[in-house]
Amino acid sequence: MNEARVADTKPVILELEPGDYWWCTCGNSANQPFCDGAHQDTGFKPLKFSLADKQQVALCQCKATQNPPRCDGSHNNL
Ligand code: FES
Fold it and tell me: Taking every annotated instance into account, which residue ranges of this chain make up the domain Iron-binding zinc finger CDGSH type (predicted)?
């Protein structure tokens, strides 16, 4: 498997409704931070996560977080 592409070097802060989401792990999606199917043939698969309540989340876009899909500050070490 190749390394994930760095989509951005900062997280995106979003207010999300309750529901299921698919976070892009490969970095190739044009709809960051969510999967748009661009991972095809890369060996990466999207990460599904679910929110029970409406909440603000900081989602990783550098793809180096150790706590996906949430930012853990790893972009500071790139
Ligand atoms: S486009 Fe990146 S995981 Fe689907």
Answer: 9-45, 46-77
User: Residue for token digits 């994930």?
Assistant: 4
- pLDDT (tens digit per residue) in 41-75: 999 999 999 999 999 999 999 999 999 999 999 99
Domain ranges of the chain: 1-64
Dist. CA 14 → ligand 1 center (Å): 18
CB 74 within 8 A of CB 65: yes
| Euclidean distance between CA atoms 71 and 11, whole angstroms | 6
- State the Cα–Cα distance between residues 69 and 64, nearest whole angstrom: 10
* Residue 25 CB–ligand 1 contact under 6 Å: yes
CA of 61 relative to ligand 1 center, distance in Å: 12
**Cis amide prior to 11 (ω within 30 degrees):** no
